[in-house]
Specification:
alpha/beta, seven-stranded mixed sheet
Length: 189
């Protein structure tokens, strides 16, 4: 897809919905309203692909942003999109090709917020326990009491509950009844 093949646009594609739908939840649960508060938050976007979410977050005042994707082509496309922002934005957005099942060691307890839109859906569909390993890794890189926003329309409830188990996670918002795709919000214990 990111190399230009497939049924989706290779230039820009947003899974499920964009920041305009997520922003009220981000404001409510994260509570960062000032530029100073937003600049102190470290946000990770797994499976960023060519979604404009990182750009929208930057335009909304968040300046410590990280995105990764399994596809190196997706990261190259994301870099192309970010280059249209002012030069300080390019420095504020760290992009990497990475595997959600084994994230960089230096990311341990690095992030305050994870905004995941459909990445765990794709990982779940790959099978072989990849969903569970990926959730475990996301938990490792999230700070204690950090928040994971998971937008999903595929992962079955019992699998999600198993992955985001009550021993390590607290569900702050159950998106089971949301339209289009559920917005689940988990706190890392």
């Amino acid at each position: 897809m990111y190399a230009g093949g497939g049924e989706f646009q290779s230039d820009e594609y947003s899974w499920y919905y964009g920041l305009e739908v997520i922003k009220p939840y981000l404001d409510e649960f994260v509570g960062a309203t000032t530029k100073e508060e937003k600049s102190r938050l470290s946000i990770l976007v797994p499976g960023c692909g060519n979604d404009p979410l990182l750009i929208d977050l930057y335009k909304n005042g968040y300046t410590s942003l990280f995105g990764f994707d399994y596809s190196a082509e997706a990261i190259e496309r994301q870099r192309d999109l970010v280059e249209y922002l002012p030069s300080e934005a390019v420095d504020a957005i760290d992009l990497r090709a990475a595997d959600a099942r084994k994230l960089p060691d230096e990311w341990t307890k690095k992030f305050d917020v994870i905004l995941e839109k459909g990445a765990l859906d794709a990982i779940y569909l790959s099978g072989d326990g990849n969903f569970e390993r990926s959730v475990q890794e996301l938990g490792r890189v999230l700070k204690p009491n950090g928040l994971c926003f998971s937008i999903t329309g595929v992962v079955p409830e019992e699998v999600r509950l198993q992955g985001f188990d009550a021993e390590n996670w607290k569900c702050l918002k159950d998106g089971t009844d949301d339209l289009k795709a559920g917005c689940f919000i988990f706190e890392r214990l």
